[in-house]
Write a structure and sequence with these properties.
about 290 residues; two-stranded antiparallel ribbon; 5 strands; about 55% helix; elongated
Length: about 290
Amino acid sequence: MSSGHGALFLASVLDQPVRQVALLLVLKVIASTVSLGSGFRGGLFFASLLLGSLGGHLFAAGFDWLWPNHAVDPHAFAIIGMSALAVSVIGGPLTMVFIALETTGDLWLTTVVLVAVIISAQVTRETFGYSFATWRFHLRGETIRSAADVGWLRDLTVGRMMRRDMKTVPADTTIAAFREAVPLGSTSQAVAVDEDGRYAGIVIVPEAHSAEQSADVAVRTILHHTDNFLVPTMTVREAVIAFDRTEAEALAVVGSPISRLPVGLLTEAHALRRYAEESELRRREILGEV
């Protein structure tokens, strides 16, 4: 019922009759399914190793039954099956190759394991898209594309990237008063708020200073993205998606969708630049350059 690492390294498990090995495989699949389906965390790595080794042993038994004249080593097939299934469930093909090499010390068997894990990884990618462990992360809202993306994407939030010194103006301000308060060239966008201080929209400063705009009307008439905003807890990925959806160069950041109190401003260019900087930093960390 536990992970299975205790039974994995017991040679007596694979020395049992084929019927008992098959029964253990079925029961372990049921136990793992119930455990994961009930919300328990973990249990993927060693469970996949045990299931793979049992499956490899059964494959060797079936091969020996079909072609009895070709003697095969069930323990070698157990290592191959263990590595192939673990790559499909957990990922990390090179990790499994090194584990097989450390376990057996056999370069020829490790070569076969390498071929098996490459095939397993490719079949998994073509049929399912990613490993089972990555799929579970996706269900939890994580986006994992490579080892460099784990963790830091979640930490790079809108709250860390936004500017807090944005210019705010009442939405009832006339365009003439707005031009005096926010000169052309001082900033590109200003945040308009209503009488309660809640977010009302974005004022594009060059548009407000355009000669086509009447100086007597309120800036409320030229507001943009009145219902589009960001919150500090959004990740950089969610922010970029919001920019693409709204086709905005900048969006206001509010404390919460309920309060709509503006706390900052974030531009698409700055978000993309911070993403590129963090990506380059993580790449240099992996290469040992920092």
